[in-house]
Amino acid sequence: MTPRLVLLDSGGANLGSVQAAFKRLGIDAPVTSDWNAIRDATHVVLPGVGAADACMTRLRENGLDRLIPRLTQPLIGICVGMQLLFDRSEESDTECLGLLRGEVRLLKSSPGVRVPHMGWNRLEGVPGAAHPLMNGLDREAVYFVHSYAAATSSDTIAATTHGLPFSAMVAKGSVMGAQFHPERSSAAGARLLSNFLSLE
Amino acid sequence: MLSRRIIPCLDVRDGEVVKGVRFRDHVAMGRIEDLALRYRDEGADELVFYDITASPEGRSVDRAWVERVARLIDIPFCVAGGIRSVEEARAVLWAGADKISVNSPALERPALVGELARAFGVQCVVVGIDSLLDVDSEWRVRQYSGDPEKTRALSRRTLDWVIEVQDLGAGEIVLNCMGSDGARTGYDVPQLKAVRKVCRVPLVASGGAGCAGDFAAVFKEADADAALAASVFHSGALPIPNLKKYLREEQIEVRDVA
């Protein structure tokens, strides 16, 4: 069955690139905040560009903050979208969706470790936490650009190290997240999106 | 570990990629889309497009090609050229650019950097700095360098400007060393080392790349996060796969080319 995918309207500017990445896989990815369209989708993406508080404000305005916790189909948050899945973000002290336990914090800079974390870095699969989303992605380099991140936890399925390790990918039931940008991560990014679409 | 990035720079004029020597005498290099795809396939880590005539002509970047590139490639890219306001930046980001870079307009009105950072986050705000060593041995900033007729020497010291733009909200700095630009005699390592000391955000070296050893030097000696180059890539003199193979042999972390 062809997946019916929707991108949730979180107010981000740069959704055209995410849509194009799905298009390369032959999948349309309309942006919507319509509850019926979202309920009818087989796969849901929560993108996020910009600041966490601006994205949460948008989700409260269009009511998606109440719908997202009720969704049962595979849901993936991308970049700030992943950060919104947690309890809180240190960025402007923002209360988030609370689907995953923990707080998103500012990355610590140190000599040789610059913030924002910008560029290609490797996914390190968590031993014993093999997840279908990670198929073919262990040790692959993907593109990051962010200043905030969630620490590793029992929901982490891939870590990445920038000074300290942080959660590059998380999964808890049908709720998943990727801190990097699959639409800008070349073949590895396409692999992640295709892995996501193959989840039922 | 974070890889060092290799960034081909595509100077855009009237919808074509051009390249000049020491910022002058531009010659056509090819179509934007063709070069973007070629570098993506060769393993470039990121692309930068400079609309080199936008700022001197007082107009913003043409969005149509930004949109075409955004849909075509699956690596990040940054767009520069006459972005003077949050609204103009938003249009370029909505067209699909991952980052925007400001240079002359930030010198006209430094508050622009902070406005962009608040609107879009520091991670998509790049500040480009054109810098030249003056006769009194100080590096100083140049403005409107896209057009030699309009290029202006400012009294602003490069190191002061690097510190100021970070405080304002720059998430990355591209230091274009004009003294070495296009000459293929190597990056200006002394200047980049001096800037690195006061730069806590990612630093992109620009100007002077001529051979693979120049890249190794700028990563090892100046600790640059990324190295940008144009003519050495456009001419085919240094294929990116060969460059990355060399850098790996030099124990420098780079992204594997498939």
Compact overview of the structure:
By secondary structure, chain A is an alpha/beta fold. Chain A is built from six helices and 14 strands.
Q: From the alpha-carbon coordinates, what is the Rg of chain A to the nearest angstrom?
A: 15 Å
Supply the helix-strand structural class of chain A.
Answer: alpha/beta
Q: What is the name of the CATH class of chain B?
A: Alpha Beta
Please give the number of β-strands of chain A.
14
Mean pLDDT of chain A: 95
Unreliable spans of chain A: none
Straight-line N-to-C gap of chain B: 19 Å
| Helical residues, percent of chain A | 10-25%
Q: What does the oligomeric state look like here?
A: heterodimer
Catalogue the unreliable spans of chain B. none
CATH superfamily of chain A: Class I glutamine amidotransferase (GATase) domain
The CATH homologous superfamily of chain B is named: Aldolase class I
How would you describe the shape of chain B? globular
Task: Please state how the strands of the largest beta sheet of chain B are arranged side by side.
Answer: 1-4-5-6-7-10-11-12
Strand portion of chain B: 25-35%
Domain unit count of chain A: 1
What is the annotated CATH architecture of chain A? 3-Layer(aba) Sandwich
The CATH topology annotation of chain A reads as Rossmann fold
- State the order of secondary-structure elements of chain B, H for helix, E for strand: EEEHEHEHEHHEEEHEHEHEHH
Structural Rg of chain B: 17 Å
